[in-house]
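BACKBONE GEOMETRY TOKENS
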Amino acid sequence: MIHQFSDFLSKTDPATLIVYGLVTEPVRVLAELERCADDLAPLTNSYALLSKLVDELRFSSFGWIDITFEQRMALNNSSDLFQLCRRKLLRSVSIFSNPTRQFIDGYLDFVLAQTKTFKDELEEYGSGGEVYGAVDWVFSAWLPLPHAHILLPPEFGHNPPQFAEVDVAFWHDGCLKAVVIEDSSTPIQSKQRRLDYLLDNHPFLDLVSIPKNRIAEGHFPEDAFPATFSRYWEGLALPTGPAPPII
């Protein structure tokens, strides 16, 4: 079966399909998506369909968090809302993938700490300084996609469709940031072959390789990412909460 999706090597409409979260059979998810391929959202709580036309994925992006507007308004403040985001995100991480969980936890702590480190700047940033507090900007941070299965072009293999796996993916500045947590064990040969193909052929991908022992230290490896990644509020006029209503 050759899948219907435009792949990242397409010369006319390059796109990247990522199935993420607690998914054991991404091929089954792909089959379900192909049944409604003409009416797909760019982001849900199980997949992201990325192209150069898709905005950067942030916590404020629509689709990833299944929370109603009423549920969101019932929360008293941005800190409570961010904790809800944390719980929802960590539920998509396998209990058997401790390094991935440690990375996500460290990242969430980091983006929240940034709102305290740059509190004065954020309270005056953009055009909402008198309305928004510094912590409101935390939802402008980049959305991590754990256990990212990235669909490979049919040229690699299509019966069944093949996916390369990375521990976490971000869509930032028109580029796919693929986080791979390295350990000392020898990877499965077929899994490594798929990953190598992805790294060698994807036209807008940056590999972020992080040693497992560094993740275990409990701190987000800020220096492994560009400066714009840490200052995630730059370029925005106002902060927006998660799951903004469609108007």
Notes: The chain is about 30% helix and 15% strand. The longest helix spans residues 98-117.
